[in-house]
Structure formats: structure tokens, C-alpha cells
Amino acid sequence: MYAVLIDAPQAEAARATAFWSAALGVTAEPFAPEPQFTTLHEALPGLVTAVQAVDDAPRIHLDFETDDVEAETARLLALGAEQIAQWQECRVLRVPGGHVMCVLPLETDPETFRAQANVWP
Known about the structure:
By secondary structure, the chain is α+β, with helices and mostly antiparallel strands. The protein has a single domain (3-116), classed as 2,3-Dihydroxybiphenyl 1,2-Dioxygenase, domain 1. 24% of the residues lie in helices and 38% in strands. The protein has three helices and eight strands; from the N terminus they run βαββββαβββα. It has an eight-stranded mixed β-sheet with strand order 2-3-4-1-5-8-7-6, covered by helices on one side. A hairpin with a 7-residue loop joins β3 and β4. The longest helix is centred in the first third of the chain and has 12 residues, at 13-24. It is globular, with a radius of gyration of 15 Å.
């Protein structure tokens, strides 16, 4: 797993960011390459944690990072997920129970990724 995202409707994203930053006792910093994301630094050590402004309902979702988006998506589909959207190279899946998750290409530096990644047969 790569990240935990707190999705907030765009009109509420600034208030949600202020709340989560204060509640978790961490600093919030906009992520310049993708302005809909605000990083909550070190909220969950070892995981990226961010508030994401969305045009959808509020929720929390997980991002899975992989060096093979197609293969990881196929693996999760075989486990019962269904693909509901694609955003850039990311696949958006709805998993059993109704939660949303994303499968995204490598974001971590490759050496760290190789050292920490699960490898599936």
C-alpha cells in the first residue's frame, strides 16, 4: 500500500485539510504537481497521507502502488474488485464491501519500492 487519501468535496477541502492537520498534529502542504492534493506530513509514518479535493462524495480510499498497473489490476479484479474509472495511469476500483481504491504506477524511488514491495507469484 502506498497512500491513504481523505476525499473531501472541493467546497469543503480547505476546511477538511485544516481539521485533519490539527486533529493529527501534522503540517499540511499543497502538492504542487497535482493541486487537488494536500499532503499531511507524517500522519501515518511510511505512508503518504493526503486530503484530496473531489467532485464526489466524502470517503477515505487507499492507493496501491505497483510496477505493473495492468497485472496488479488484473489480480485485484480476479479477487472480486471491479474497475469503475481510470484517471491518468491510475485505475479506480470498487472492491467487495463497496470501498474505492486506486492502483497507480510507481511513485516511490525504485530501490525503496523493490525493498518493500510484495511480490505475487
